[in-house]
């Protein structure tokens, strides 16, 4: 069951889309029962004085709920199941961008696209190889539509891609991380990590400092 939680993104490139103005925001997950409508969620978010959002798909009703609100929909997401098609066919990428991003601009402040979610480390190895190609074609479409200065493309990673602090696992390091890091540096995208230190703490509270789970500054 997903829930509303803090969105934390870590960037390693110095170039970024200038339109993004936020520092933190909300992950708006909707895989649950008895959840409020998107319109009610937007009202709650505005009342909490948050202004940056991430959704895990490109649901049109959810995107429309942010129209004209002044809230930044920092990320809409391309589901993992689309990566291979996007990698193999740039027309697919163009159609997806037109239908799920361009169609809602400028009234909805879409600022980013996540190409897949936590792909590296999954058992579906065929998606690993499709990731860079999908990002390339999505960026190509965004640039052709003259949206590259407005909408940034990235892909969020799980903490599992690291064997320890800032060191990639050997299984993903050479063949997969180098190409997409080079691509992201070229197009000015950020490296994004789904950081969940509270889950690490829950798994081993005897050895993990609770202040780590609280994002205390010394960590």
Automatic annotation (TrEMBL):
Catalysis: reaction(s): Hydrolysis of (1->3)-beta-D-glucosidic linkages in (1->3)-beta-D-glucans
MF GO annotations: glucan endo-1,3-beta-D-glucosidase activity
GO biological process terms on file: carbohydrate metabolic process
Record keywords: Glycosidase, Hydrolase
Listed InterPro entries: GH, Glyco_hydro_17, Glyco_hydro_17_plant
Signal peptide: none
EC numbers on record: 3.2.1.39
Family listed: Belongs to the glycosyl hydrolase 17 family.
Name by which UniProt lists this protein: glucan endo-1,3-beta-D-glucosidase
Organism expressing this protein natively: Prunus armeniaca
């Amino acid at each position: 069951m997903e829930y509303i939680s803090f969105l934390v993104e870590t960037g390693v490139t110095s170039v970024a889309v200038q339109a993004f103005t936020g520092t933190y925001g909300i992950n708006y997950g909707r895989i649950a029962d008895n959840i409020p409508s998107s319109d009610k969620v937007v009202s709650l978010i505005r009342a909490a004085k948050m202004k940056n959002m991430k959704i895990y798909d490109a649901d049109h009703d959810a995107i429309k709920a942010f129209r004209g609100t002044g809230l930044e929909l920092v990320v809409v997401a391309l589901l993992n199941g689309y990566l291979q098609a996007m990698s193999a066919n740039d027309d697919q990428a163009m159609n997806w961008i037109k239908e799920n991003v361009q169609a809602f601009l400028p009234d909805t402040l879409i600022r980013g696209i996540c190409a897949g979610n936590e792909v590296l480390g999954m058992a579906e190895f065929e998606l690993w190889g499709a990731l860079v190609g999908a990002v390339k074609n999505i960026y190509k479409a965004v640039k052709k539509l003259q949206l590259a200065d407005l909408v940034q493309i990235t892909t969020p990673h799980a903490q599992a891609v690291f064997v320890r602090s800032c060191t990639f696992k050997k299984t993903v390091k050479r063949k997969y991380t180098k190409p997409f890091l080079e691509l992201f540096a070229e197009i000015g995208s950020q490296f994004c990590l789904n950081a969940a230190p509270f889950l690490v703490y829950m798994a081993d509270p005897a050895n993990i400092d609770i202040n780590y789970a609280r994002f205390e500054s010394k960590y």
